[in-house]
Every structure is written in C-alpha cells, then in structure tokens.
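Marked as duplicate of an earlier ticket. Keeping the data here for the record.
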Amino acid sequence: MNSRFRMPLGLRTVAPDERLSIVDHLSELRRRLIVSIAALVVAFIVAYVRRTEILHLLIRPLPPEQRHFGLITLAPTEPFITIMEVCLWASILITLPVWLYQVYAFVIPAVGRHSRRRMLAVVAAVSALFLGGVLFGYYIVLPIALRFFLGFGGSQFTSQVRAQDYFGFVATLLLMAGLTFEVPLAMAAFARMGLVTPAMYRKHWRLAIVGIAAIAAFLPTGDPFSMLLIMMPMIGLYVIGIWLASLFGRPLVWQRGAWLEGTPPNQSDDSLAPPA
C-alpha cells in the first residue's frame, strides 16, 4: 500500500521512512504549476469579462478634469494591449492566495495537522497584508500622487494622460504598496530562521527608518506628502514586525549548540509554533 496520499486540500504527505525520487518531485511540481496556471487563466477570463468595471475602478482616482477628457491612445493596437495588461495584473492579484498555497504545498512534503493549519493562517495573513497594501495605495497614495503630478506646473501645461502609461503607473504603485505591507511577516520569518533577533531590529531602528524612506522615495509618487503617507504605515508595520519576531524568533543560528558542534539542529514538525 502506498503511504503517500493527498489530503482534501491538495497537500502531499510522506511517511517518515519514505524518500521521494526526482520523478516524484517533478510530478508534484508539474501538478502545482498546472493548478497555478489554471487559476490564472480562470481569473484572467473573469477579469476580461469584467474589464469595463475594472477600467472604471482604476480611472476613478484621476482628478475630475482628467476623467472628463479621458485617456488617450497613440497606436491602433494600444487599446487592445492595454486592456490585456490590465486584465493580467488583475488576475495576478486575484490568484495570489492560490499561488502562495501551491508554493507551500510543494516545498512542504510532509506536515502535521497543526502545521498545515498554521501555514494556512500564514498564507491568509500574507494575502491579507498584500491586499491591505493595495487598498492603501489605491485610496490614499494614488489620488494624492496623481494630483501632484498632473497639477505640477499649474496652467503652463495641458496634461493629457496616455492610457498605457497611466495603467502601468497605477499597477507599479499598487504592487509596490502591497509588497511593502509584507514587512512584518518577512521580519518574523528572518527571526524564525535565526538570521536576526528582535533585539537587532530594535537596535538598528534608525537604519530601518532610512531604508523605509528610501523605499518610499523609490515609489512612483514624487511629492514629499505622498512619501510621508507611505512611511507612516511602514514604520507601524516595522513595530509589528518586531513584536512578531519576539513571538516566533529563535536564537541566532550560529549561536546554537548544534551549529557549534557541527551537526544540524533538530527540527520539529510544528516548525511554525512560537518557541516555548
């Protein structure tokens, strides 16, 4: 009887004395890729069917005068290409939780029930934080950035917004805003791996502020007020990351006894549980 079977959620389990071959790994990778691609295709079809609502949603942050004139295109194929790109970005956002779960299901060949539930919570938290960052960028940062850029120069310029450039700007800003909201989980993950400690996070908070300012300056906003709006939640997320690191962190990997003795440390199945 084959000890390897699939759980209802699609998780692969492996017996303690079983070793997977390269063919097994490749078969599992193919399955995960097929599921991910299928989810992306379905989401793309849904986004294309609802493309009018999505385009109206993305155009809404424009100032009223720009919405009145509408977006311009400069090539016969540009409307088609632009709509396809918008639908692709929307489908990626929709399928993000599916992709995260498929990555987890591939790299963890054997998990217990508690580990599986805890990892599902991590995947949900990553997705929720990313979505929170996207919403923050859409409702807070994007309108202010658009008013700053389109109003810069006053009456000296007549601004006409090109559709492809505008949607590319919006997609970049929302993606970066979503990724910046993943800071707490990334900090907790580094602490869990024993690469940093909560004390190191607290000690180097000044460097963290400089890094946060650099990230805010890298985003396509440009004006200082938008940068400040981005920095404020990122600083709060950094504080949350310190708290999570204190809950889930482990001693530095090079300070553990197993490391000093030259033997790998023992890992429990419930690897995501906070240390006792």
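See parent ticket for discussion. Strands lie at 5-6, 12-13.
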